[in-house]
Amino acid sequence: MPLDYQAILDEINDALRPELGQEGKVADYIPALARVPADRFGIALRTCDGFEAASGDSNEAFSIQSISKLFSLTLALQRVGDQVWDRIGREPSGNPFNSLVQLEREEGVPRNPFINAGAIAVADRLVSATKSHAKTDIVELISSLCGDKVMIDQEVAQSEAANGYRNVAVANFMKSFDKFDNNVAQVLDVYFNQCAIQMSCVQLARAAGFLCRDGGHPYRGKSVVSERQARRLNALMLTCGTYDSAGEFAFLVGLPCKSGVGGGIVAVVPETLSLCVWSPAIDESGNSHLGRKALEMFVARTRLSIF
Amino acid sequence: MPLDYQAILDEINDALRPELGQEGKVADYIPALARVPADRFGIALRTCDGFEAASGDSNEAFSIQSISKLFSLTLALQRVGDQVWDRIGREPSGNPFNSLVQLEREEGVPRNPFINAGAIAVADRLVSATKSHAKTDIVELISSLCGDKVMIDQEVAQSEAANGYRNVAVANFMKSFDKFDNNVAQVLDVYFNQCAIQMSCVQLARAAGFLCRDGGHPYRGKSVVSERQARRLNALMLTCGTYDSAGEFAFLVGLPCKSGVGGGIVAVVPETLSLCVWSPAIDESGNSHLGRKALEMFVARTRLSIF
Amino acid sequence: MPLDYQAILDEINDALRPELGQEGKVADYIPALARVPADRFGIALRTCDGFEAASGDSNEAFSIQSISKLFSLTLALQRVGDQVWDRIGREPSGNPFNSLVQLEREEGVPRNPFINAGAIAVADRLVSATKSHAKTDIVELISSLCGDKVMIDQEVAQSEAANGYRNVAVANFMKSFDKFDNNVAQVLDVYFNQCAIQMSCVQLARAAGFLCRDGGHPYRGKSVVSERQARRLNALMLTCGTYDSAGEFAFLVGLPCKSGVGGGIVAVVPETLSLCVWSPAIDESGNSHLGRKALEMFVARTRLSIF
Amino acid sequence: MPLDYQAILDEINDALRPELGQEGKVADYIPALARVPADRFGIALRTCDGFEAASGDSNEAFSIQSISKLFSLTLALQRVGDQVWDRIGREPSGNPFNSLVQLEREEGVPRNPFINAGAIAVADRLVSATKSHAKTDIVELISSLCGDKVMIDQEVAQSEAANGYRNVAVANFMKSFDKFDNNVAQVLDVYFNQCAIQMSCVQLARAAGFLCRDGGHPYRGKSVVSERQARRLNALMLTCGTYDSAGEFAFLVGLPCKSGVGGGIVAVVPETLSLCVWSPAIDESGNSHLGRKALEMFVARTRLSIF
Question: Which reaction does this enzyme catalyse, per its entry (chains A, B, C, D) (predicted)?
Fold first, then answer.
């Protein structure tokens, strides 16, 4: 008997909504994020066959933050292929996501593309490959993937830039190891803008669709990335997608996920569906508190863990 | 059309055998391991339905080393359930497998049960739970799982003990944080002996069968662990099972794996099959060089990656 | 006009006695140390000319703890000379005194002989040089230097051994790097016993006399160490003698010092005098709270800083 | 019998000149430094009484680099007094001088004012205290101290800025911890310029004169800093003045020293004299190879070690 996804998402929404605002804390390092109301919860999915289901605040746009790292890496794979791995590792970091310690020990090579240092290194590659178009190209890729025109929240982008001293430090640190090609300010402009893209759960569930379709575009005949690349993106999400809680997510959820401090989490069930859950209050590890609970419930109910 | 596993394993054996002895290096920190000939390659699998295939030196016994951590953790889950997680984390370590740095920063709580510190903490739990029977109980669990009586190589066990200063350091370090219940020597005796168990690829492929059967015993009606525990063991293998190369294995192979410095690697395709490959020459990360290549070929050929 | 040392010590005693028990905390990691009353303060000095002055509880014996590292190093210099530096550095550690992190990064070579790892490495050298006599030889050296027969508090020694897991870890860790010659238990027996020696301020001021006399014995014609060695011992005390507060002590006191968690601090004014202050309550860095204040007062009053 | 300083300096010059160019390596991270000929050696001293002696290339100007940290700290003590210590520690770093690891662990508080991070923090204080005059004020202080008008080598300053990514990283990192008041570029402009000041051994020996005169100006009646501050500057030099070799310098030389990668080392004999030695080839720790040897010879010959 096929799963009734709409019923399952409604059930999760009903179960978790009473818990809104009880645990976790909305990210407050910049005002534009701190203003987001904590009492939001949305969830949406899209199957490989194009069936969609959604519940709660699933059409409300939020700041995708680190989820953008998934798409900037996808764009880099399209443009430079495996060269992207010349200066970026593929191992979980085992340290808080913004640590410089490891970057120092490994001489300017970030452990993976989903920690800040790694995503900034990806942005450096994109600037080399696209010149001044990197920012536009990321927005266009995402817009194409979700079938809507997505926008950058300029206030968020500017606040990120105004408070991004640690990211400036990280980029200059990589440059000191000669592992960085472009002007730091230009690269960080790309990075701060990609983090400030606004999307809803429905849009993100659609945009991640290529990851459950062996790289095939969610809406068009062509491929976004190769099958092999799609599988590897999923592997990276599983081992590195949720800050220093990747082991815990694998253990408790068992799906490739990429989260952001805006409270969104994108998850993939290979060959089956892509999903996005959003609730702004995050836990100490930077992942949405109810988002994680929702994914645990989803997997318990559907038995769709990859393990 | 069903996969012809026997043909696939033979094909891998034929393709890799010419490469024997070319790359990697047999572990040589103790004489009994250093004596193992580098020119061995074996591979074996067993499906959930009980079909078996094997190729190469698949019946030759080797030192399972860290693969034993999978079985000691399984035994601990049987005996104390989730209490095992009171003093052991579930995150990839992001550091070489024998590092004390992280153990210090995290005040005596090992990052996961598959690094040495974590496996020693598991052994401490087993000693508490089984008194003087821990060693026998591990051997009996494995023997039951593979349907053969497995043996401990006493020379290896004694050599491990004679050279195990770092493990003695690790155990005493945990004890200094009050995170260790039993006598250090007694616990390490369990640990050094479990590492010295000898098994063949065929035996290990069988013994890991419960991991692809939702925890069900490979040969008998009863459960080894619950379905949830089996899935979580697979998740741990994927994120932490191959030393500091877990990200790389997930990226290139895409299966839960547990490796040992004896050159063995156990892999699981959930709901489908369990597999073991062995070739003694290991790479810098401690994983079998040809074992990894074999797994990459197997997944490329069968498309059985979980991603 | 010559300084009236007796008046100065009395003045310090009078000024600080009202503060007894107000700040800091008696070391309590073993019962025999935890029992020491907090309300003790003693100070004593001996000039190069043999003049002595003392005030407060200056004849009460206390556990010299890490101050013993000064004498075990002196003995090692007598027995093996500069060979002692083959496996021990001479740099401040910049880390809490019992850290294994640095020992790992520097592959089993302790940063200096005054951190635990370094003192254990010194004890290893002494065991090699003196066979089973190391413990006796340290006691005899100190007894000769202070002109009294000093004793080991067996209860303290046994408690140190019973709680010394971290030191066991450190010794085994060095052994894993092949930087340790003898049986760990035998070496630690020396180390735990030397820490348990009981001495008074008067005795310690006398015993350190060779350090302000270019290495000359405080009571006899012969040399304890060469002039060069004496100066270098003073240099080591200044840069490494007070755990992770060596910079602070140099800055605020400006004299070579060696402290112990028993609350004692030995200080040296080269060419002038040796001094010992004791008060059991220690601060977070492991140094006697009032001991430090007393030294600051002494230097402010006498202007005997070396800087 | 008074020491014949001129003869001693000539003797050192004669002894070491044949070794020029044999060991160590001229700093080459910027072209203007790499061009400096390796075959230079100069030494100069000035006693508290105003007697001067010099030998070798003692009037040739070189890039003072990190020696400038001594003077910028002196200026900061003049302007803000002990407030300078609010955000800067006084402990040896125990790590290579440009490490970010420790800065991270200690949340943006540099360990001491003589590592790069600490000197940049001092420059931040100076910018707050002097507005746009910090650069000029440092030059004027030094000019006043040595009685000559000193100059900034603009090519060096610009090269430092063009290659100073790690310093940009360090400054932004401190700013990310909210431990930095001013614009990063403005502060680094001060820092890069102070490092590019050109001085000779004779000028530096004079300029450091206040450190051996209890803070009194080398040429005028007034004080540069208080006696207490002068003693504390000497203590800092001894524990932190020679990168990660402070322990070694204390052990082998036994004088407060501040070195720079340009090959200069300033040393102080409190109450007696100030000295500068210069030879451009530096060892792995960043200190002048022959400069260190010269200081060892000077102390062996004069017995002026402070220990």
Answer: L-glutamine + H2O = L-glutamate + NH4(+)
- Whether A272 and chain B come into contact, CB under 8 Å, resolves to no
Architecture, CATH, for domain A5-65+197-301: 3-Layer(aba) Sandwich (3.40)
Which of D101, D104, D172 lies closest to A168 in CB terms? D172
Q: Looking at residue B227, what is its pLDDT?
A: 95
The domain defined by D66-195 carries CATH number 1.20.1250.20: no
Give per-residue pLDDT as tens, B228-263: 999 999 999 999 999 989 999 999 999 999 999 999
- Domain-by-domain residue ranges, chain C? 5-65+197-302, 68-195
Chains that touch C (3 or more CB pairs under 8 A): B, D
Comparing alpha-carbon positions, the chain C residue that sits nearest to D248 is C90
Q: Homologous superfamily of C68-195 in CATH?
A: DD-peptidase/beta-lactamase superfamily (3.40.710.10)
CA of D103 to nearest chain C CA: how many angstroms apart? 12
Band the pLDDT of C100: cuts 50, 70, 90: confident
pLDDT confidence bin for A98, thresholds 50/70/90:
low
Among D71, D19, D42, D17, residue whose Cα is nearest residue D262: D42
D66 part of the active site:
yes
Neighbours of chain A (3+ CB pairs under 8 A): B, D
pLDDT of residue B128: 97
Instruction: Report chain A residues whose CB lies below 8 A from the CB of B252.
Output: 232
How far is B166 from chain C, CA to nearest CA, in Å?
5
- Prediction pTM value: 0.92
Does position C98 have pLDDT exceeding 90, yes or no? Answer: no
Location of structure tokens 């409190």: D270
What homologous superfamily does CATH list for B5-65+197-302? Answer: DD-peptidase/beta-lactamase superfamily (3.40.710.10)
- Mean model confidence pLDDT for chain B: 95
Among residues B69, B135, B179, B258, the one annotated as catalytic is B69
Hey, what CATH topology would domain B67-195 get?
Answer: Beta-lactamase (3.40.710)
Please report where in the chains the tokens 């590792």 appear, as a residue.
A89
Q: Does A67-195 match A5-65+197-301 at the fold level? A: yes
